[in-house]
């Protein structure tokens, strides 16, 4: 393993990680969930909010980092409002680690909260999230090319080119549910079968309902800090070993290959910078708004060759119990929770695993000890962006 740290300067660790209340929260507000997650992450670290001089936020308000920081009583001297969809938080973590390593910040808090489910229930928004119809999207929106249709089209292309079957894609949902069954915080824990996934209502061919993520409310927060803060923290550090980010396209017509996601670049960069190989990972936390995202990200991160994702997942490899590479150990967006831009939840779960705090779903390495290395990789938009973070203890 390479020396712990980023490309230069101080070493960087995740010292606090927490979720707000999650699931069905009809009376919560997004600001309240931000605050709850932030307080819990600071308490987890054992640091005071006055020690936080960096802040990252996206997805809420007109000026996200300004409004949310004010609500939290923070006055940061380093801010980030990067917004690239679900990969936002892995990209922000990369930026924060670089800033801390360079001495531009000492402790950076990343926080997110959403009442996506409650808003629909109360009629404050509809089920369809509009990204607008200007710029490149003007050539797709008039034809009803929705977000889910874009992912469905990409999945169908993989099936045509590589012989991937709908049963193999369904296995991703089945194994995510098996992991969720071990997680008392997961929204859905009842075991699934492939037949049940296939029998659900069609949403966008080839995706039936259970190929798609659930919709929930909830928030998450992660606190990154310089190495000298570690001795004052109440928890063991989880070191940031390497990061990578990449954006590929906005219009589907400009995507060179529907079977290759931007994780092919972000993952390669993260592993190279960490000085480790994919096969050394004890687990992976991957963005899974749809089953195909998990499958293609596994290929692009190098856990199997291109076109072999179907065969890789159908053998039960993704399960915490008995799997060779436990993936989405909390149940993922398919079964645990998905309040919108879920990338920060991937980092929280990775930290819990590396600290040995995951309870019944705890992953252990080949030596029987608590997991030592893990990767979190977020995907944004319609495979438009990717951020990958390699973590270790």
From TrEMBL:
<dbReference type="Pfam" id="PF22691">
    <property type="entry name" value="Thiolase_C_1"/>
</dbReference>
<dbReference type="InterPro" id="IPR055140">
    <property type="entry name" value="Thiolase_C_2"/>
</dbReference>
<feature type="domain" description="Thiolase C-terminal">
    <location>
        <begin position="244"/>
        <end position="393"/>
    </location>
</feature>
<dbReference type="InterPro" id="IPR016039">
    <property type="entry name" value="Thiolase-like"/>
</dbReference>
<dbReference type="InterPro" id="IPR002155">
    <property type="entry name" value="Thiolase"/>
</dbReference>
<protein>
    <submittedName>
        <fullName>Acetyl-CoA acetyltransferase</fullName>
    </submittedName>
</protein>
């Amino acid at each position: 393993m390479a020396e712990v740290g980023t490309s230069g300067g101080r070493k960087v660790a995740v010292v606090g990680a927490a979720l707000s209340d999650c699931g069905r929260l009809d009376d919560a507000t997004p600001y309240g969930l931000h605050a709850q997650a932030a307080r819990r992450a600071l308490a987890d670290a054992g640091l005071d909010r006055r020690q936080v001089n960096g802040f990252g936020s996206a997805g809420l308000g007109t000026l996200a980092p300004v409004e949310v920081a004010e609500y939290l009583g923070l006055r940061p001297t380093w801010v980030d409002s990067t917004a690239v969809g679900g990969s936002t938080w892995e990209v922000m973590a990369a930026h924060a680690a670089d800033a801390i390593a360079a001495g531009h910040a000492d402790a950076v808090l990343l926080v997110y909260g959403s009442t996506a489910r409650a808003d629909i229930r109360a009629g404050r928004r509809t089920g369809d999230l509009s990204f607008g119809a200007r710029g490149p999207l003007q050539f797709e929106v008039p034809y009803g090319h929705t977000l889910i249709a874009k992912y469905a089209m990409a999945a169908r292309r993989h099936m045509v080119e590589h012989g991937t079957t709908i049963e193999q894609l369904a296995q991703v949902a089945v194994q995510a549910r098996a992991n969720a069954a071990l997680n008392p915080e997961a929204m859905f824990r009842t075991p699934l079968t492939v037949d049940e996934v296939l029998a659900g209502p069609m949403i966008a061919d080839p995706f039936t309902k259970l190929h798609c993520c659930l919709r929930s409310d909830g928030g998450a927060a992660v606190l990154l800090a310089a190495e000298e803060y570690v001795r004052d923290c109440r928890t063991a550090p989880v070191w940031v070993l390497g990061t990578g980010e990449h954006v590929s396209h906005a219009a589907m017509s400009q995507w060179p290959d529907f079977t290759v996601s931007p994780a092919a670049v972000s993952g390669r960069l993260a592993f190279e910078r960490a000085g480790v190989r994919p096969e050394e990972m004890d687990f992976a936390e991957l963005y899974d708004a749809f089953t195909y995202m998990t499958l293609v990200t596994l290929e692009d991160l190098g856990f199997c060759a291109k076109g072999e994702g179907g065969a890789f997942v159908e053998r039960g490899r993704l399960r915490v119990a008995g799997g060779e590479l436990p993936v989405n150990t909390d149940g993922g967006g398919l079964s645990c929770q998905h309040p919108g831009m879920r990338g920060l939840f991937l980092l929280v779960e990775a930290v819990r695993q590396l600290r040995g705090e995951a309870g019944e779903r705890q992953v252990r390495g080949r030596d029987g000890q608590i997991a030592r290395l893990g990767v979190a990789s977020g995907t944004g938009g319609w495979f438009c962006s990717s951020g990958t973070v390699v973590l270790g203890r």
